[in-house]
């Protein structure tokens, strides 16, 4: 146990969900660590978890009743987890509403699968479904279960929806096999959850506008001109800003992945629609991050219906669209403006020119020809350049990690 003063957990309410893994007993250590850091912890155990450890252990250590049954009335001590004005005896709603964090440790493949599929057939899965605060999973399972593509897809889906994961360790597993799947050490779980709580204060009260995706410029009613942007970088930025406590508006064109939850989503199709929505949302924003791949050209006119094949040849006349970021740069005010640029050569020099031309505070540039920075990928390799021309090159990182670095840079530069 580490007694910690000034911990992020002070005064926080944690719902600790224990599921049916052999690592369920490690929940005891977690409970003690969280409590010692000042959290009020209520434990919820699934039926399978109760096969491994008796609820009484957690009840004694937490000094609170353990939640087990969807249909039971709440134990006296846990009623306090919900907001005072709540008179509901609907346990999952009360418990979810009151928790700053729902931490599921150990989390089995089963609970991950249920949450990813929207199943709420017991108390813990119902609590997660109704959760207001952050939900964090610390998985523990056999290595083949962990590597199963279904489990990995569920995890990716949940991550994209804003759920967090504490990666399991690699080593000897309870089943006698070796590999990834051991519950992360208590210390790491607690410090990662603590970091999440700390993060939430970073941009608290700040309105951040993020644009993402690609625009589509119609040729006729069937065809359009567009580009290869997947929207992943912009969505990662919107998610990371949300996780850092920002009030996020996401103006998005078409993308290849589902948009993150917990942000105000404004969907657009064309560059002109994007311009209109961005201009409206920018009025209230303190930070504007423009990752959208806005079409630089659009067909000069949209034909009605479907253009017939005819002679087999067609000339399209394209007209330049308006530079949204450039326009924002002209009436910048106190807004912090961030641009993204895709360049295949002389990246830094070209990005510096763009930063000046558009009157930006920061520009993030990447070369899609590099391995790990390609379109549609889950990683990126970027350089960040500020107004004073200082360049910071980042290594290959997941798009979410790049997003966090960009946001941290914004925070430093705004100070
Ligand atoms: N951008 C914009 N409006 C446009 C085109 C681009 O706001 N019509 C924004 C992008 O979202 C990006 C930044 O401007 O943040 C740089 O985009 P990029 O396409 O690299 O720059 P362009 O000004 O279009 O220059 P070029 O295509 O000549 O490289």
Secondary structure blueprint with pairings:
Elements: E1 13-18, H1 26-36, E2 40-45, H2 47-52, H3 55-62, H4 91-98, E3 101-107, H5 109-116, H6 123-129, E4 134-139, H7 143-147, H8 149-160, E5 164-165, E6 169-172, E7 178-182, H9 186-199, E8 207-212, E9 217-218, E10 224-225, H10 232-243, E11 247-252, E12 264-267, H11 271-282, E13 287-290, E14 297-299, E15 318-320, H12 324-330, E16 336-342, H13 347-357, E17 362-366, E18 379-380, E19 382-386, E20 391-393, E21 397-398, H14 399-414
Parallel strand pairs: 1-2, 1-3, 3-4, 4-5, 8-11, 8-13, 11-12, 13-16, 16-17
Antiparallel strand pairs: 6-7, 9-10, 14-15, 17-19, 18-21, 19-20
Helix pairs in contact: 1-3, 1-9, 4-6, 5-8, 10-14
The chain binds cytidine-5'-triphosphate (CTP).
Give a written overview of the molecule:
By secondary structure, the chain is of the alpha/beta class. It has 2 domains: 4-199, Rossmann fold (3-Layer(aba) Sandwich), CATH 3.40.50; 207-414, CoaB-like (Rossmann fold, 3-Layer(aba) Sandwich). It is built from 14 helices and 21 strands. Strands 12-11-8-13-16-17-19-20 form an 8-stranded mixed β-sheet, sandwiched between helices. Strands 2-1-3-4-5 form a 5-stranded parallel β-sheet, with helices on both faces. Strands 6-7 form a two-stranded antiparallel sheet. β1, α1 (26-36) and β2 (40-45) form a beta-alpha-beta unit. α10 crosses α14. The two termini are 36 Å apart.
